[in-house]
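Case study.
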Amino acid sequence: MNTFTAPEIDYVAIAPILIVAIAALLSVLTETFLPRSVRRPVQMILTLISLIGALIVLVINRDIRTITGGGAVAIDGPALVLMGTILILALLSAFLVAERSLDSLGDSFAPSAAALPGSVDEREFSARGYFQTEIWTLFLFAVLGMLAFVVANDLLFMFVALEVMSLPLYLMVGMARRRRLLSQEAALKYFVLGAFSSAFFIFGAGLVYGFAGSISLPEINDALASTAGETLLIVIGMAMLLVGLLFKVGAVPFHQWTPDVYQGAPTPITAFMGATVKVAAFGAMMRLLYVAFSGIQWDWEIILWAVSILSMIIGSLIALTQSDVKRMLAYSAIAQSGFILVGVVAASPSGISAVMFYLIAYGLVTVGTLAVISMVRDSTGEATHLSKWAGLGKKSPVLGAVMAVFMLSLAGIPLTSGFVIKFSVFAAGIAEGDTWLVIAAVVASIIAAFFYVRVIVVMFFSAPNENTASVAVPSIFTTITVAATVTATLVLGIIPQPMIDLLTNAGIFIR
Amino acid sequence: MSIDGELVVFIICGGLSVIGALGMVLSRKAVHSALFIAMVMINLAILYIANSAPFLGMVQIIVYTGAVMMLFLFVLMVVGVDSSDSLIETIRGQRLFGILFGVALAILLIGGIGSSLGDKPDIGLKAANDEFGGNVEGIANLIFSDYLFAFQATAALLITAGLGAVILTHREAWKPKASQKELSVARFMVGAGHPGNKPNPGVYARHNAVNTPAILPDGSLALDSVPEPVRSRDDSLIVDHRAVSTVVELVESEDQN
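After joint prediction, the assembly is written out as follows.
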C-alpha cells in the first residue's frame, strides 16, 4: 500500500499567480473590515500594486521553464509571454475602471448592483455617491483565473481556471451604471450560454479521459502516440473541449453572445474582457492542441479551418451593417478571432509567436479603442451610435486622430501594429501550406477594412451637427491608458523587430 | 455477455435515469421537473456505488439530491408551485431545431462512444481503490497531490460565487430603519398630514389606474395617492378632469344650500 507523497511546488515559478491570488483575498478582507470611505483607494492601490508586482516577478522569472504542482502547472515560454500580456492589459483596463471624471454621476458602475433599475433606492445610492468597490475584487479574481488558464497543464485545472476567469466576468458585465436593463440582460445571456459551453468542456474532458485514462495534457499525448489508429472517442472529446474554448473567444458559430455583451457591459469591462479573455482562451487552446492533441492534428485542423473562415467572413459582413460603434467592435472581435485562428491552424513555432504577437497588439488596440469610446458622450451617457460621431474629428482633433490610428490598426494598414500582426499570421499560414485559408483571410480583411475606415470617414469627412456627441475630459487614468496603447500601436507597427525576436525565443510549449 | 448482478443494476437504474431525464425535459411544471432530476441523481448515485465508487455515490446523494435539489424546490415553493412555463416559442422554429440538433448530437455521441468502446477491457476501480487502502483515501491522495491546484482554485470560485450573490442581492440601508414607535410619532406630528390611511389611487375618479391621483372631497388632487416612483415620472400622471369638475360642482351646490 502506498503512502501519501506531497507534490513538489515551485513557489518561485508560480509567484506571479500567487501574488494576484493573495491580493484578491486581501481585497475580500478589505470589503469586509474597512470602512466605506477608505475602501475605494485601498482597493485601487491593492490592484495596481499586485498587477505591477506580478509583472516585475514575471520579468525576473523570464528564464524559468518547468512543470510543477503535480504536473498541473506548466511554466514555459508561451505561458510567461501570455501571463505578461494579461497582466499588462489588465493594468491598462484597471485604469479605466478607476476613471470617475468622465460621467457626471461618477464611474461606470452601478452604485449598488442590488438596487432595482430606476428605483428610488438607486437614485438615493447614486446621489450619496455610493460605489460598488467589490468590482476590484471581482477584477482581481478574473485576472487570477486568466493567469491560471494559460499555465494549466491538465484538463481539470484548466476547467476550474476557466470558471474562475468567467464567473467574475459574468458579474461585472451586469454592473453598468447606465442602461442597466441592457447590462443585466447581457450578463444573464453571457452567464447562461457560458455555463452551457463550460458543460461542453467538461463533457469533452470526460470523453478524453475515457480514451487516454488521464487528464494530464502530456499523458493524453502519450496515449495518442501509443494507440494504433485514432478512435472517434478522442476526436469527439477534443471537439467538445474546443467548443468550450471557441465560445470564450467568440468564434462563429459560438459567437451569438458577443454583440450583446460588448454593448451591455460597462465600457471598462468590455475593454478588459475583450482584450484579456482572448489572450487567455487562445493561450489555453494552443496548449491544449499542441501539447495534448498534436497526434490528431489533422482532425482539429479541419474544424478550426471551418471555424476560422466562418468567423472571418460572417464577422466582417455583419459588422458592415452595424450602426453602433460597440456592436461593430463586437463583430470585428469575432472576425479577429478568425484571423488569429489562421495562426493557430498553422501549428508551427512561427505560428505560435505570430499568434502571441497578434494577441498582444490586438489586446492593446481593443483597450485603447474602448477607452476612446468611453470618452465620447452626450447627456444620456456614452454616445455609441455612429451618427453621433459625425464630425467628431473636427470637433476634437486629438481624439479623432487617436481613434483613427486604432481603426487603421484594426484594418491592418502599414505603419500600425495591425499590419505587422496580420502579416506574420498570414506568413505563418502560407509557410504551413494553408494558402486557401490565407486567401479567405485576405478577402475578409478587405471587407473589414471598409467598416473600420467608415468610422474615420464619419469622424473627419462629415460636418458636425447638433447631434454630434461631445468629448468628456478624462482624468489622468484614462489618459495614461490611451497614451500607452496608441504609442504601443505605433511603435509595434514601425519597429516590430524587437518584439518579434522576443516572441521567437518564447514560442515553444514544454511537455 | 453473461447476465450478472451489475448488468441488472445497470438496466434498472440506467433505464430509470433516462426516464427521469426525459420527464425532466418534458414535464410542464417546474416542481415535477425538479423531482425528476432528483430521481436521475439518485439512480446515478446507485450506479456509482455499483461501480465501486462509494464516495462519489454518497456525495451525489448528499450534495445534489439532498442539498441542491431541495434548495431548488424551496425556491420553487417561494416562486409559486403552480406557475408553469409558457410554451409559446419566442424564436420561430426553435423547438423543431432544438429537437433536431439534440437527436443529431445523441446519434453522434452514442455512435462515437459505442463504436470506440467495443474492444476496451474492463479495468474497474479495484486497483485504484486498493492503492491507498480505500476509495476515500485514494480520492484524498489525488486531491492533495495531482489536483492540489485545481482543489485550491475552487476556493477562488466559491469566494467569487459568495461575493456575487451578496453583490446582486444585498441592498445596503441608506437611512436607518425607523422603529414602530418613531413611525407612529411621526404620523401624528403636527404638519405630518393625515394620520389615517391615505386615499387609494382613483378615489372619486372613473379610472382606477395606479397613475390616476385620487380626488379629495373639495375637488383638489391627492398627489400622494400615487406611488412615488410613478409620480416622479412627470409624463405619467392622468388627471380625470371630468371627475374633478363633477366634485367641484357638488361642493359648490352644497355650499349654496
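Observations recorded in class. Chain A is about 70% helix and 5% strand. Chain A has a mean pLDDT of 92. We will return to this complex in the next lecture.
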